[in-house]
Amino acid sequence: ACLQDAAEITTIQALIASHQGDMEKCAELSARALELLPAENLFLRSMMSAVLGVAYLLMGDARSSIQAFQQAAAIGQETGNLLSSVLALRRLAALHTILGQLGQNSFLPSV
Predict the structure, then answer these.
(1) DSSP state letter for 111
(2) Residue 103 has what pLDDT?
(3) Span 14-21, average pLDDT
(4) Which ranges of 1-111 would DSSP assign to H, the alpha helix?
(5) Which DSSP letter does residue 22 get?
(6) Which of 9, 11, 62, 80 is the most exposed place for a label (fewest CB within 10 A)?
(7) Average confidence (pLDDT) over 24-35
(8) What is the model's pLDDT at position 26?
(9) pLDDT(111) > 50
(10) pLDDT reported for residue 99
(11) DSSP codes joined into one string, 12-34
């Protein structure tokens, strides 16, 4: 229970950092939340992966952003959360379009 509480508190702190525009802190806390969250808490894991992707994107780290969005999309597909999956895939497609890599299909998560 204590670890679950720490994971949820870290998740909230990451969201606060994002809202405040502190992307470095947001990325750090999102990554930490993903370490702490139980594997079965797919909803929060998907959300933190997407938040991490946005933070990396805004910090200019496209490669890490792509990895985070791929994870968010895969979790969304695994859980049947179509909205989560589509939003992550949309961001991935936009990133790959910007990077000139859209035709490679490398943004699609393996399921």
Answers:
(1) -
(2) 54
(3) 97
(4) 2-19, 23-36, 42-58, 62-79, 82-98
(5) -
(6) 80
(7) 98
(8) 98
(9) no
(10) 83
(11) HHHHHHHHTT-HHHHHHHHHHHH
As a whole number of Å, the end-to-end CA separation of the chain is 31
What the block records as the tokens of 94 is: 């936009």
Q: What is the spatial distance between Cα 47 and Cα 89, in angstroms, rounded to a whole number?
A: 14
82-99 pLDDT, tens digit per residue, is 888 999 999 998 888 888
Residue 105 near residue 70 (C-beta atoms within 8 A): no
The residue ranges of DSSP E strands in 3-81, in sequence order, are none
Q: Report how far residue 15's alpha carbon sits from residue 47's, in angstroms, rounded to the nearest whole number.
A: 10
**How far apart are the C-alpha atoms of 108 and 111, rounded to whole Å?**
9
Q: Which amino acid is at 26?
A: C
CA distances to 55, 76, 81 from 42, in Å: 20, 8, 10
Written as one letter, the residue type at 72 is A
Taking alpha carbons only, the member of 76, 80, 99, 101 closest to residue 88 is 76
Q: What is the chain's length?
A: 111
pLDDT of residue 98: 84
